[in-house]
Amino acid sequence: MKTKQRSAGGSLLELVVIVAVALGLALGIQAFLVKPYRIPSESMVPTLEVGQRVLVNRIGHRFSDPKVGDIVVFHPPTGSDLDVCGDRNNDDTAACDRPTAGQAKVNFIKRVVAGPGDTIRIVDGHVIRNGKRERDSYIANGCAGNPKPGCNLPTPITIPAGHWFMMGDNRGDSDDSRFWGPVPTKSIIGGAFATYWPPNRIGLL
Asked: pLDDT tens across 31-49, in order?
């Protein structure tokens, strides 16, 4: 009887250890390697729908910079709370070229459309980067013929060193760098590389 009790006690302890290790690994993976993220708004339609889930690589951008075209999760500047640009001289004909100091606590997901040293302007929702229009077949362009704020910002700006200009694929309905400025590299959490929910949209980005 004692042997059976010890055996049952040993099995229970083993189960507890296995669960604890599995939980620790899961938390470690989320904290340092890969984290799931739910799409909260329509700003990335049609690429990502509201409620869709993506996986974010938290380690990749610690060793290399993002590339134009990457979809990334990041902390926006504090100015994103009220669409405040850090450049007091910013006007309605130019995108915000300088963020406010500090970063907001929320997470945003957008596409990188320009990097350090690039000169850009916005025409009908399209990014003209270094004189060439981006290849943007992925966007939902509600800006065409639409006077919405941010759709036409013809005055060129230059992205400062160590910063990245982010825009949603839903160009007519996205709160992004046009209004609160480029994002510093240190504020980037990671790149979205795959979607795992809903089942009919599973795949790499």
From this structure: 446 889 999 999 999 999 9
Map tokens 């509201």 to a residue.
50
Domain ranges of the chain: 1-32, 35-204
**CB 107, CB 183: distance < 8 Å:** no
User: Mean pLDDT over all residues of the chain?
Assistant: 86
| High-pLDDT (> 70) share of the chain, % | 82
Q: Rounded CA gap, 95 and 85, in Å? A: 9
d(CA 28, CA 107): 20
The CATH architecture annotation of domain 35-204 reads: Ribbon (2.10)
* Contact predicate 108/73, CB 8 Å: yes
Our answer to whether residue 2 is catalytic in this structure is no
Task: Report yes or no: 189 and 59 within 8 Å, Cβ to Cβ.
Answer: no
Least confident of 55-69, 98-112, 171-185: 55-69
43 is catalytic: yes
Integer Cα distance of 68 and 113 in angstroms: 5
Choose, from 2, 4, 7, 43, the residue flagged as catalytic. Answer: 43
Of residues 110, 174, 177, 187, which has the active-site annotation? 110
